Amino acid sequence: IAATQPSTNWHLKENAREHHTSKFSSEELIVRRGQAFTITFNGTERPEQNLIFIAETGPKPSKATKTLATFDISSTASKEGWSAVLQSSSSNSVSISISSPHNAVIGRYRLSVQSGSSSPASLGTFVLLFNPWSSGDDVFMPNKAECEEYVLEEFGIIFAGNKNHISSFGWNFGQFQGDILNICLSIMDRSLYYRQDPITDVSHRHDPRYLGRVLSAMVNANDDQGVVLGNWSGKYEGGKNPSSWTGSGEILQSWKKSGFKPVKYGQCWVFAAVLTTVLRCLGIPTRTITNFSSAHDADGNLRVDEFYDADGNHLERGADSVWNFHVWNESWFTRNDLGPSYSGWQVLDATPQEESGGIYQCGPASRYAVKEGEVDLDYDVPFVFAEVNADCMYWNYDSATGKKTLIFSKSTEIGDSISTKAVGRDDRVDVTRDYKYEEGSAKERDIFKKARKKLGLEDKFDPTAPKLEEIEQKPDISGKFKVAGSLEVGKDLNLLLVLENLQSDAKTVNVNMTAWSTLYTRRRVNQIWKDSISVTLAPKEEKQFPIKIQYPEYQQQLTTDKTIQVTALCHVEDGIQVLVKRNITLDNPAIDIQVLGEAKVNKEVVVEVAFTNPIDTEVKDCVLQVEGCDLLQGVLELRIPPLKASEKSSTKFKLIPSEAGPKHLLVNFSCDKFADIKTFKMVNVIN
């Protein structure tokens, strides 16, 4: 006879505390693998006798695919498989401690119990996650402070700007909020891998390598109707400008609400931030990494070619590019496929740049393999190696004749100031040395040669490679752009072009200068300014030429990335051309947040956000967006009246914090003249 339906006490609070899952707000049990959890249930007769438990996950559970486990009560927890140990029993209820193996498939499980010959009775469902606190798990992270940061922390800082001028902004990962865990589980069930073969896909979900790769594909919309649609056009109609997001929650919720249609729009940091949310949610330690002067080597020759015309305009030729910065992820897990020295941080990149295995996915590439030039190891090490190591070749291109002339090449340009947020602090940490040996050192060049050799590039005849005598010819002059004054949107841009004659005879130089507004990928959008000068430099003379680009000249042309590329192509009479260039990122004006009074759990507290219009014309269409985990639900949007020249606005709103501890409030202010002015404030909430 079938037993009556048992009622289950999942001991949510106690289990969550033991399993570091207290931050999830769920009525369902959420636990980590390789660790015991306790449940109590009633409704079985003579409970401790012949109880058999069944834990199953996925569409067609089976023992062969490790998606089905049946286990009875034993005296001790098993090291290998699933096990149940009796804690206590009374006449009508029984308490059981259930343990899963360290390498169990993660996801939502159905748990049932069978007593004697009766048919199984359902106890309910629970979710099983990776366990970085457990030494047997592939994602085990021995340092507890790092577990706190890379799994439990819902706030992050992403670095941007350019290598001369690093900026940063806050991001709300929000991996424990609302429905995010369920959305992460549905991301896995919508991947191409699952659609093609659900049984095999689910059986691989014990492996962080596999899931990292699958999720790097699913976070971008290419191939699989994934979460975020990329857009690098500078025009974002029909969606949100990528720089306006302040957190992953809104993006993941929108994806679900729309019936899983890709959310418009993202750029690299959006893909990386969303992947951080998903992986932290599932229990894989993950962080965002920003690489400055990041190469996109489309043809896999570890070289990036840039072309300029005679006027110094940067041409859109060839698929290679150098981005002011690029953001990807590192996740922490062992590489049993490669060996112990390749374990630890693994690079994953969800930005759709190049296909890997026929779809837009990238990684996991062992960071150690990248540093050592082991470009033959899985997965996608050559692409990541090029991002931080490619050599740059700058060419003059004559569109009339199709002739290319090498201006110069540089091997120290790419992969600068590689950055991530510090553990437990809002500071920047430089991890460049973890990706490569010191730039310009013999070791660094040896690794580069090793990588070229492994890729079969060293002996190949390369028709575009410069002939030796072209490289040997030394330029007669050198040049650089210096910044004079502040780099702020709303202010004039003052630069100095510094030219120096390196020879002991006078030189005449014709200089063609241009300034273009660009995206952070250095893609040109609008020409802002051009000029040409002819100068004579006495022997060994250095001269400075001031350049002023006024705010009204660039205001209409500037992209929301606030980036300008200035170039000067110097034609030296009877000498070789010299290219001087600089990528400039302008800062937005400041915005200020004040918390008025003490922030206490479940008590209203007022926050004031102040902004002063720094320009001499009115700004309108002002919108303030605010978000912050445990401070407010979702994203608060406030419209602000237009501001006259130099006028200050002060906006007040109320928060009701839901949890004690250090929390971060993120603010994004936009108007018709300034896009996405971001700031954040730490709010210490007390009980």
UniProtKB/TrEMBL annotation:
<dbReference type="Pfam" id="PF01841">
    <property type="entry name" value="Transglut_core"/>
</dbReference>
<feature type="active site">
    <location>
        <position position="268"/>
    </location>
</feature>
<dbReference type="InterPro" id="IPR036985">
    <property type="entry name" value="Transglutaminase-like_sf"/>
</dbReference>
<dbReference type="InterPro" id="IPR013783">
    <property type="entry name" value="Ig-like_fold"/>
</dbReference>
<dbReference type="GO" id="GO:0046872">
    <property type="term" value="F:metal ion binding"/>
</dbReference>
<feature type="active site">
    <location>
        <position position="326"/>
    </location>
</feature>
<dbReference type="InterPro" id="IPR001102">
    <property type="entry name" value="Transglutaminase_N"/>
</dbReference>
<keyword id="KW-0479">Metal-binding</keyword>
<keyword id="KW-0808">Transferase</keyword>
<dbReference type="GO" id="GO:0003810">
    <property type="term" value="F:protein-glutamine gamma-glutamyltransferase activity"/>
</dbReference>
<dbReference type="InterPro" id="IPR023608">
    <property type="entry name" value="Transglutaminase_animal"/>
</dbReference>
<dbReference type="InterPro" id="IPR002931">
    <property type="entry name" value="Transglutaminase-like"/>
</dbReference>
<feature type="active site">
    <location>
        <position position="349"/>
    </location>
</feature>
<feature type="binding site">
    <location>
        <position position="389"/>
    </location>
    <ligand>
        <name>Ca(2+)</name>
    </ligand>
</feature>
<dbReference type="Pfam" id="PF00927">
    <property type="entry name" value="Transglut_C"/>
</dbReference>
<dbReference type="InterPro" id="IPR050779">
    <property type="entry name" value="Transglutaminase"/>
</dbReference>
<dbReference type="Pfam" id="PF00868">
    <property type="entry name" value="Transglut_N"/>
</dbReference>
<feature type="binding site">
    <location>
        <position position="391"/>
    </location>
    <ligand>
        <name>Ca(2+)</name>
    </ligand>
</feature>
<dbReference type="InterPro" id="IPR008958">
    <property type="entry name" value="Transglutaminase_C"/>
</dbReference>
<keyword id="KW-0106">Calcium</keyword>
<feature type="binding site">
    <location>
        <position position="444"/>
    </location>
    <ligand>
        <name>Ca(2+)</name>
    </ligand>
</feature>
<feature type="domain" description="Transglutaminase-like">
    <location>
        <begin position="260"/>
        <end position="352"/>
    </location>
</feature>
<dbReference type="InterPro" id="IPR013808">
    <property type="entry name" value="Transglutaminase_AS"/>
</dbReference>
<protein>
    <recommendedName>
        <fullName>protein-glutamine gamma-glutamyltransferase</fullName>
        <ecNumber>2.3.2.13</ecNumber>
    </recommendedName>
</protein>
<feature type="binding site">
    <location>
        <position position="439"/>
    </location>
    <ligand>
        <name>Ca(2+)</name>
    </ligand>
</feature>
<dbReference type="InterPro" id="IPR014756">
    <property type="entry name" value="Ig_E-set"/>
</dbReference>
<dbReference type="InterPro" id="IPR036238">
    <property type="entry name" value="Transglutaminase_C_sf"/>
</dbReference>
<dbReference type="InterPro" id="IPR038765">
    <property type="entry name" value="Papain-like_cys_pep_sf"/>
</dbReference>
<comment type="similarity">
    <text>Belongs to the transglutaminase superfamily. Transglutaminase family.</text>
</comment>
<keyword id="KW-0012">Acyltransferase</keyword>
